[in-house]
Amino acid sequence: MEAMVFLVSTVFKIYLMLVILRFWLQTVRADFYNPISQMVVKATNPVLIPLRRVLPSIGRLDTASIVLALLVSALYMATVFFIKTGYLPLMAIFVTAFSTLIFEVLDLMFYLMLLTALLSWFSQGRSPVEYLMRQLTEPLLAPIRKVLPALGPVDLSVMVFLIGLQFFKILLSGFLPVAL
Q1: Which CA distances in Å does 166 have to 104, 108, 161, 172?
Q2: Measured between alpha carbons, how far is 154 from 140 in angstroms, rounded to an integer?
Q3: How many Cα atoms sit within 13 Å of 131 on the Cβ side?
Q4: Which of 46-51's residues contact partners 24+ apart within 8 Å by CB, and which partners?
Q5: Torsional sign, CA 30, 32, 37, 42
Q6: Distance between CA atoms of residues 144 and 116, nearest Å
Q7: Angle between helices 35-54 and 63-85 (to 10 degrees)
Q8: From CA 56, how far away is CA 49, in angstroms rounded?
Q9: Among residues 8, 178, 168, 25, which one has the least CA distance to residue 98?
Q10: Which residues of the chain have pLDDT under 70?
Q11: Which one in 85, 96, 110, 180 has a CA-CA gap of 20 to 30 Å to 173?
Q12: Alpha-carbon radius of gyration of the chain
């Protein structure tokens, strides 16, 4: 049973992160011709295009992506609950689905920041992955860079962001139910 939960969790979390990434790409107006962006678009379009016919965007806010992320999270929680318990507690599913979505967004931020930091050490700045990572993370790091003093080639903004992110996750875990 644990092996099945692991497999289901892995599949749902990967797709959930792709949907969150799709929303994030649109929010920061990242380069959609980037190969990574194209992969995310191709993975999410089969579900998002029909959903957009029913849920149009509100200004720059892509409501279809948000609803899809909530639906994927709810389906993920329902599947895991059913595998573990054999029944579907609807209220628990919706509460943990919302909580799971929030924690997955925070986890994606963590992974992207970590990848951005690692790429900055080893890359020459010409990689499509690095360019996309900068487009995604720069709006989050810019306010920190305004406050932190410049230390030459050392950029502490990623470390400050990651510490703040972990602090925020710990605070949230006291208020929101932690996902399965």
Answers
A1: 13, 12, 9, 10
A2: 18
A3: 12
A4: 48/19, 48/22
A5: positive
A6: 15
A7: 90
A8: 10
A9: 178
A10: 125, 178-180
A11: 85
A12: 18
Taking only the tens place, the pLDDT of each residue in 51-104 is 999 998 898 889 999 999 999 999 999 999 999 988 888 888 888 999 999 999
Tell me how far apart the alpha carbons of residues 74 and 59 are, in angstroms, rounded to a whole number. Answer: 26
Q: Which residues are within 8 A (CB) of 28 and not within 5 positions of it... i.e. 6 or more apart?
A: 135, 136, 138, 139
Provide the 10 A C-beta neighbour count for residue 86.
7
Distances (CA, A) of 16 to 53, 88, 106: 21, 20, 12
Helix axis angle, 90-122 relative to 128-147, nearest 10°? 100
**Which tokens is 148 given?**
């932190």
Structure-token pair, residue 7: 């497999």
What is the percentage of the chain residues whose pLDDT exceeds 70? 97
Q: Residue 8's closest CA among 65, 68, 82?
A: 82
Three-state SS for 126? Answer: coil
Closest CA to 134 of 155, 107, 103: 155
Would you say 28 and 135 are in contact if contact means Cβ atoms under 8 Å apart? yes
DSSP category for residue 61: B
